[in-house]
Amino acid sequence: MKTKLVLGLTLATLLLAPSWPEPPLRTGAYVQDVTRTSAKICWVGDRGDGVALVVTARGGGGAPSVAWQERGERTVALVTGLLPATEYEFVANEGERRHTDLSGTFKTPPATSDARVRFAVLGDSGGLPLWVNLSRAPIVHALASVDALPAAGHVSTIGAMLADAKPEFWLHTGDVIYPRGEQRHYRPGFFLPFAEALRHAPVYPVIGNHDWEWTDGRPLLANFELPDVGDEQFFTFAWGPVRVVGLNLNRSVGLDPGLAFLDRVLAAADEPWRIVVEHFPPWSASDQRDRPDLIERLVPALVAAKVDVLFCGHDHTYQRYRAEGPLHVVVTGGGGKSLYELREHPRLVVAKSAYHLCTVDCGPKQFSLRAVGLDGSEIDSFSIEK
User: Fold this and answer.
1) Are 86 and 111 contacting, i.e. CB atoms less than 8 angstroms apart?
2) How far apart are CA 88 and CA 103, in angstroms?
3) C-alpha–C-alpha distance, residues 177 and 209, integer Å
4) What is the pLDDT of residue 11?
């Protein structure tokens, strides 16, 4: 009996001891930075130079071109020659073998602002599965390397809901990866649970405080191809009737760079709807408490710029606040990380401590949001009319 116990402990030690390096980051294809005429198809992990990417329009028309901007551990394929408001399919082939995980679809933005679009919003999704802490153990390393271990449960459910919603694009309100935004956690914390959604619609994340903790958000900025308008910490793009502005308002960055960027890009915007996404809510019905600096400076700047909706995360709940002039503030931080308790707040319209996903359907005259919990029940819905 003693011999069997010793052998068992020895075997367990050999299998579970942290003696291997972290599993390398490896992803399927993810769509990025889609415009009316171009898109980027990315993946991480060396698949060899023999992989060819073929892009075709569903229903025919056009002849897109593919140019490799990077090829190796991180692949970026720039697809040009696209048409607006068109669905495309991309297929990655290596000889006669089709790489299913490197294939997918996407839709380009409409050419004018009188079209209808659908997008989704979520945040604070970066919870990690328990096995991550054992990922340097030989047996866990081997299983993780072939995707034989599950992602965190709530995050995976949100990922499946997102894929089923079929948005044209989606916004992430920050804290993509916990606890410190490290590159080694991107596979189990983001690319696995959102793999299906990423193959069909581009994501535009802003930098949360946990993302910022690791080398000022460099892993996030390295993994995502955000619109090139200077500094990817701040970005903007138009999608039909919607103008989106993404800001990094982490405390060490301050408000001045973001407010200056906001003024500059919205001065030239003519889309019917103006949406701003950043991580920190001005008002909070959790223990995070209100942010006086955001209330005193950000909110008036958004109102003056005629912003319609501010999307935030940080609070792991859903919250919507009474409008400040034309401005509606929505906190969506229930993307998968542990939830917060709520307290009363004089400005609250709706609040629920629940995992959820927000979907938005809008045209030039109406903006409609719906927040849905894991069981499919509606947490909130509202519409804004122009």
Assistant:
1) no
2) 11
3) 10
4) 38
Contacts of 130 (CB under 8 A, 6+ apart): none
**Is 70 exceeded by the pLDDT of residue 231?**
yes
Per-residue pLDDT band at 18 (split at 50, 70, 90): low
d(CA 281, CA 224): 24
pLDDT of residue 6: 31
Residue-averaged pLDDT of the chain: 90
Q: Could you write out the three-class secondary structure of the chain?
A: CHHHHHHHHHHHHHHHCCCCCCCCCCCCCEEECCCCCEEEEEEECCCCCCCEEEEEECCCCCCCEEEEEECCCEEEEEEECCCCCCEEEEEEEECCEEEEEEEEEEECCCCCCCCCEEEEEECCCCCCCHHHHHCCCHHHHHHHHCCCCCCCHHHHHHHHHHHHHCCCEEEECCCCCCCCCCHHHHHHHHHCCCHHHHCCCCEEECCCHHHHHCHHHHHHHHHCCCCCCCCCCCEEEEECCEEEEECCCCCCCCCHHHHHHHHHHHHCCCCCEEEEECCCCCCCCCCCCCCHHHHHHHHHHHHHCCCCEEEECCCCCEEEEEEECCEEEEEECCCCCCCCCCCCCCCEEEEECCCEEEEEEECCCEEEEEEEECCCCEEEEEEEEC
The residues that bridge with 273 in the sheet, in sequence order, are 242
The reply to whether the predicted model has a pTM over 0.90 is yes
Answer yes or no: are the C-beta atoms of 262 and 220 closer than 8 Å: no
Cα separation, 78 vs 66, whole angstroms: 6
Residues present in the chain in total = 386
Q: CA-CA distance, 301 to 201, in Å (whole number)? A: 31
Phi, psi of 341 (to 5 degrees): -80, 150
Contact 279, 315 (CB under 8 A): no
Sign of CA dihedral 232, 236, 240, 241: positive
d(CA 125, CA 156): 9
